[in-house]
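Dataset card, provenance and construction

Sequences and ligand SMILES were collected as paired inputs. For each pair, a complete structure of the chain with the small molecule in place was predicted and serialized as structure tokens. The example below shows a pair involving LGQLAAA5. Curators did not alter the output after generation; any descriptive sentences attached to a record were derived from the structure itself.
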Amino acid sequence: MFIKICGLRTAEDVDAAVAAGADAVGFVFAHSPRRVDAATARELAARAGDRVLTVGVFRGQPLEEVRELAAASGIRAVQLHGDEGAEYYEALRPEGYTLVRATAPAPEQPESCGALGEDLLLLDAPAPGAGKPWDWSDPRFVPPAGRWVLAGGLDAGNVGRAVRTLAPWGVDVSSGVEVRRGVKDPAMITEFVRAAREASAASA
Ligand SMILES: O=C(O)c1ccccc1N[C@@H]1O[C@H](COP(=O)(O)O)[C@@H](O)[C@H]1O
């Protein structure tokens, strides 16, 4: 199971995610209380090391801004949360990033990973980063084909049920490992990773 801890802002956050065994860490460049600048993200990405995928999170920003921030911060993956079209994926593909397309699921419109040229599909709530889950139990929801990551309102208390019910390829959390908006808690990060791994092992 791929586990991403998102919205990290400090060295302590990164150390906690790496020590817990996260596979990816995210830095928000979109408008958000979690936003970091390129220099901070660069330091944090270097601290995370090569074993961990470093992800920049964008929402509705011009392609040139995405390009510049991604290059300046040294992140290895780009996560796009707005209505960015296939041209973003086409333009970023040659630059070697792992490309993540984030969207809110619409049960009547099944999603498929790779539809716009992405490597990973992230299914998130309509208001990303708000800690609100979407309705995972909607019987019309069909899990996407390919590699998909579940996000939106996850925490250590619900991630096990989500993994057992939906069997996503990965999970992503931000609010659910915070004591208040934008402030991560190392113990909550550890507990989240433990709960996700335990559920994934039990479902294997
Ligand atoms: O975290 C933010 O503020 C944010 C802003 C703009 C786009 C995405 C953002 N966060 C992403 O939201 C999901 C899940 O968040 P949560 O666990 O529900 O708080 C995660 O992928 C973040 O990268």
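Derived descriptions for this record:
The radius of gyration is 16 Å.
Residues 6-7, 26, 28, 30, 32, 34, 57, 59, 81, 122, 124-125, 128-131, 151-154, 172-176 surround LGQLAAA5 (CB under 6 Å).
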